[in-house]
Structure to design on (261 residues):
C-alpha cells in the first residue's frame, strides 16, 4: 500500500534479443551449478551445440552457418533453458523487482522521487556488471522509467536515471505484459485500449449474428468466450482495483456484446 505522500519510480528493462544472445558456455555452467550432471547434462549440451541455419530464396539455398550463441527457436525446451540462464539476475537487484521471462521491471517507493532514482541507479550499476559478465545486452533505447504518483508536480519531474552514461527516457504511459499504465494508476488508458480491442472483435460477432448460417446460439457463445471474453478477463484482478468509472466502462462493453448472444 502506497500513501498519498509517497511516489513509485518504475523502470522497465529491455533485454536486447534475449533468446538469440544466450551465451551457451555460460548456460552450461549454470546448469552444472544447479546440480544437473550425467546423461541429462550431456544431452542438453548436445542439444545446444553446433546448431546451424540456412536461408532459402525461391530455389536457392545458402550454405550452412553455425550459430555460436542463442537458443533454438520454436523449441519448448528453449524457454526452460532461458529461465535457467537468467534465474539469478534478480539477485543483483536490491529494489523491488519482477521478472517474467525476459521482461524485467524494477521499482522503488519513497517520499522523494529523486531518492528513489538514486537507489535505482545503484541497481542499474549492479545489473550492468551482471550483464557484462554473462554477455547480456540491455537495450538503452527501449529501457525507460515512469513515475506513479498523485502529485501533479512530481509527475512532471525528469529524473536522472542512467545506464552506461546514457540518460534513460521517461515514459508517461508504459506498457507491461499487455497492460498500459498511467501516472495515477487509474487504468483509464488500459480500459480505453480494452474497449477499442473488444469493439473491433465485436464487429465479427455482429456479422455472424445477422446471417442465417452463423447465428446459432452455441456458435455465438463459443465465439464470445474464446474471442471476446478472453480479452475482457485478461488482468481481471487488476481491473478490480481500478475506479468504479473504469469498471463501469468495461461492464458496458460486455453488456453490449451479450445482446447478440
Amino acid at each position: 500500500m502506497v500513501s498519498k505522500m509517497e511516489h513509485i519510480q518504475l523502470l522497465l528493462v529491455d533485454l536486447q534479443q534475449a533468446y538469440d544472445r544466450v551465451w551457451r558456455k555460460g548456460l552450461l555452467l549454470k546448469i552444472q551449478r544447479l546440480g544437473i550432471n550425467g546423461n541429462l547434462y550431456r544431452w542438453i549440451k548436445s542439444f545446444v551445440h553446433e546448431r546451424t541455419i540456412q536461408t532459402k530464396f525461391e530455389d536457392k539455398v545458402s550454405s550452412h552457418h553455425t550459430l555460436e550463441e542463442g537458443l533454438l527457436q520454436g523449441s519448448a525446451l528453449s524457454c526452460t533453458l532461458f529461465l535457467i540462464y537468467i534465474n539469478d539476475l534478480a539477485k543483483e537487484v536490491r529494489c523491488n523487482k519482477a521478472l517474467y521471462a525476459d521482461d524485467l521491471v524494477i521499482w522503488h517507493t519513497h517520499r522523494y522521487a529523486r531518492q528513489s532514482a538514486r537507489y535505482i541507479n545503484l541497481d542499474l550499476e549492479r545489473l550492468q556488471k551482471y550483464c557484462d559478465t554473462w554477455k547480456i545486452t540491455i537495450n538503452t533505447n527501449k529501457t525507460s522509467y515512469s513515475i506513479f504518483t498523485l502529485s501533479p508536480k512530481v509527475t512532471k519531474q525528469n529524473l536522472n536515471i542512467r545506464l552506461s552514461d546514457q540518460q534513460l527516457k521517461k515514459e508517461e504511459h508504459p506498457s507491461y505484459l499487455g497492460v498500459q499504465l498511467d501516472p495515477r494508476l487509474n487504468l483509464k488508458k488500459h480500459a480505453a485500449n480494452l474497449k477499442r480491442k473488444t469493439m473491433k472483435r465485436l464487429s465479427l460477432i455482429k456479422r455472424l449474428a445477422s446471417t442465417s448460417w452463423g447465428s446459432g446460439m452455441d456458435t455465438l457463445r463459443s465465439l464470445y468466450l474464446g474471442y471476446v471474453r478472453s480479452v475482457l478477463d485478461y488482468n481481471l484482478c487488476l481491473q478490480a482495483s481500478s475506479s468504479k468509472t473504469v469498471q463501469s466502462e468495461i461492464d458496458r462493453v460486455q453488456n453490449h456484446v451479450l445482446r447478440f448472444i
Remarks:
- Residues 173 and 182 are 5 Å apart (CA to CA).
- The chain is about 45% helix and 20% strand.
